[in-house]
Amino acid sequence: MTNSRQAADSRQTAPDLSALGLPLSDTRVYTALVGHPRTRAADVAEQCGLSAQQVSRALSRLTAAGLASRVPGRPARYLAAPPELALGALAAERAAELREARAKIEDLMEVHREASRFTHPAELVEVVTGADNIDSRVRRVQEEARTQIRGFDRPPYVKPPGANLGEEQRRLKAGITYRVIYAQAAVAVPGRLRGDILASRGERSRVRPTLPIKMVMADEKVAVIPISSSPRVVDAAYIIHASALLDALVTLFEAEWERAVPISGALAGVDPDAAALLTLLASGQTDAGIARALGWSARTTQRRVRRLMSELNATTRFQAGMNAMARGLL
Questions:
Q1: Does 42 score more than 80 pLDDT?
Q2: Beta bridge pairs of residue 223
Q3: Cα angle vertex 8, ends 5, 9, to 5°?
Q4: At what angle do helices 165-173 and 131-144 cross, to 10 degrees?
Q5: Cα separations (Å) of 133 from 89, 162, 222, 232, 242?
Q6: Sheet holding 261-263, edge to edge
Q7: 168 and 153 in contact (C-beta within 8 Å)?
């Protein structure tokens, strides 16, 4: 009775590891070995409710896969490898296979989309939902760029601002041009200006008080824009392929680019704090907005604004921006 209950308990408590490629019999045998180290094959068979032949085959597969080992001596006894190492390695291998499969699916989808566009104009615009899916498509769009990335940067964000700085630097080194226009609200995010925008060496960046949409565009090939203009969340986006609509977005970007104020990350003779302050002034930030963005107190902000305006021989913020542009500081 006790042995029968143990066998039933073993079958009930054995986890489902089929996602790792383990047959149920192998899972039962491995689970039994985890709970009863240095067990004979006959005892494993009794615990698992399996035949001796099934256990023998399972032990052969488990030892070949490194999930179990035979302990020296007679009679033959078996020991399970630590689950964290043995099953962790299997999980990592399966995860890598799934990532590779997903990449192949995306490649096939791209072929499908390209082929469909010739006969189905609706395929020129896709809809993607979910933050992770949107982030994945934005990264893929940037990876597909061959000459330049254009961008409208404004809140809200799918990922924390600056999360893709390393990837952008890699693409810049590969010769891809980045032209990004930041909304006033984007440069006002605490720590964003110095930790991300001015730190992005090689990016050509400008600032506008507001922007009509968020956007990432690769060459004149594809663009991603949110479906909703919600200030709090991005949960759905359009993927717009080469078309008259994409041409219109190119024209919109270039028009905004001409109206935007340049941001320089390498201001000769100007310390980083002054560079950040000058950029925020040019974007139209208030003293309170500058203080939040740079982590300064109100008194420190006012003192530095007055000093910078004095150095630029300006009586208004607009004049400070114009004088800075005339000196090549912006």
A1: yes
A2: 217, 240
A3: 85
A4: 10
A5: 26, 19, 16, 18, 21
A6: 125-129, 236-241, 222-226, 215-218, 148-153, 177-183, 204-208, 261-263
A7: no
Instruction: Answer whether 239's CB lies under 8 Å from 137's CB.
Output: yes
Looking up tokens 């489902």, which residue turns up?
16
- Give the DSSP per-residue string, 55-80: HHHHHHHHHHTTSEEEESSSS-EEEE
The tens digit of pLDDT for each residue in 140-165 reads: 888 889 999 999 999 888 888 878 88
pLDDT at 172 over 60: yes
DSSP E strand stretches across 100-250: 125-129, 148-153, 177-183, 204-208, 215-218, 222-226, 236-241
Whether residue 188 contacts residue 292, with contact meaning beta carbons closer than 8 Å, is answered with yes
Residue 5 CB: number of other CB atoms within 10 A? 9
